[in-house]
Amino acid sequence: MDLEIRDLQLGLGGKDILQGMTLPQVSANVFALIGPSGGGKSTLLRVIGGLLPPDGGEVLLNRERLPEDEKSLRQCRRKTGMVFQNWNLFHHLTAFENLMLPLTQVQGMPVEEAEAKSMACLERFQLADHAHKKPHQLSGGQQQRVAIIRALVIEPRCLLLDEPTSALDPEMAAQVLEMIEEVAAQGTPVMLVTHHLAFARRVSDTTLFLAEGQITEHGPTSAFFERPQTEACRRFLDRVMRM
Ligand SMILES: Nc1ncnc2c1ncn2[C@@H]1O[C@H](COP(=O)(O)OP(=O)(O)OP(=O)(O)O)[C@@H](O)[C@H]1O
Ligand SMILES: [Mg+2]
C-alpha cells in the first residue's frame, strides 16, 4: 500500500504531539514503525486508523486522503483492522463470538455466513479448538492471535498493529510474530509498531523511524538497518539491537 503524510498536526491535552509530520509517498506491503518511547508511533497509527482526527495536514492511503468528518471516519475504521498491546477482545464473549460481532453487527452479514467465516478463520490459524473459550480461558498469545483474526475477519484494507507482542512472554510473542509474518506473506498490508527490531527487519519492506513527533528517517528496510543516516537512529538501533 502507499502511504504519504503532509504536514500532519495533532495536539493532545494541550500539548503538540505531531508538529508537521511529513513523509513523501512510499509503498510497502509491511511498514515497520520504530523509534524511542514517546516518539509518536501510537499516535500516528491511531490517526491512520481513523481513531484520532488530526488538527491539520493530511494522510493519504493509496493516494486517497483520510476523511475528517466523523461519519466518513467511521467508514474508514470499518475498513481497517487494529490490534493493540492488550485488552483487544470482549471478555464476556467467546473467541468465536468476538469474531461474529464485527461481521454481523458492523458489516450486517447474515448469521450463517458469519458463522462459517468465523470458524474458517479460526481454523486457518489453528485456533478452532479454542473457539468456544472466553479470553480468560486463553493464554495471552492465544488472545492476541484471536484479536488479529478478529481484525482480519472483516477483510480490512490494512492491518494496524501497535506492539501486539509487548505484553507477552517470548514463547507467546514468537507465536504471534509467526502469525503476523503469515498474514503479511498472504498479502494483507500491515503497519506494525514494534520494539522487536530483528522481527521488524525480517518482515517489513519499509521502515519509518519516529522521534519527537517526526518521521526523521525512512527507507527500504534492508538499507535502513545497514546504513542508518542519522546519529539518533544509529544510536537507537545500537542500543535496542544489543538487548
Ligand atoms: N491523550 C494524551 N494526552 C496528552 N499527551 C499524550 C496523549 N497520548 C499521548 N500523548 C503524548 O504524545 C507523545 C507521543 O505518544 P505516543 O503514544 O504516540 O508515543 P509512542 O511512540 O507510541 O511511545 P511508546 O513506544 O512508549 O508506545 C508522548 O509524549 C505522549 O506523552
Ligand atoms: Mg506506543
Key structural traits:
alpha/beta; 2 domains; Rossmann fold; binds magnesium ion; 243 residues; 10 strands; binds adenosine-5'-triphosphate
Q: Which ions and ligands are bound to the chains? A: adenosine-5'-triphosphate, magnesium ion
Strand ordering within the main sheet: 6-7-8-3-9-10
Shape: globular
Q: What percent strand?
A: 25-35%
Distance between the ends = 31 Å
Sequence of secondary-structure elements:
EEEHEEHEHHHEHEHEEHH
CATH fold-level topology of the largest domain: Rossmann fold
Q: Specify the CATH architecture of the largest domain.
A: 3-Layer(aba) Sandwich
Number of helices: 9
Specify the CATH homologous superfamily of the largest domain. Answer: P-loop containing nucleotide triphosphate hydrolases
Rg (CA only): 18 Å
Overall CATH class of the largest domain: Alpha Beta
Task: Report helical residue fraction.
Answer: 40-55%
**What structural category do the secondary elements indicate?**
alpha/beta
Largest sheet features: 6 strands, mixed
What are the segments in which pLDDT stays under 50 over at least 5 consecutive residues? Answer: none
- The number of E-state strands comes to 10
Number of domains: 2
Mean pLDDT: 94
Ordered list of secondary-structure elements with their pairings:
Blueprint: E1 2-12, E2 15-27, E3 30-34, H1 41-48, E4 56-61, E5 64-65, H2 70-78, E6 80-83, H3 95-106, H4 111-124, H5 140-153, E7 158-162, H6 170-185, E8 190-193, H7 197-203, E9 206-211, E10 214-220, H8 221-226, H9 231-242
The protein binds adenosine-5'-triphosphate and magnesium ion (MG).
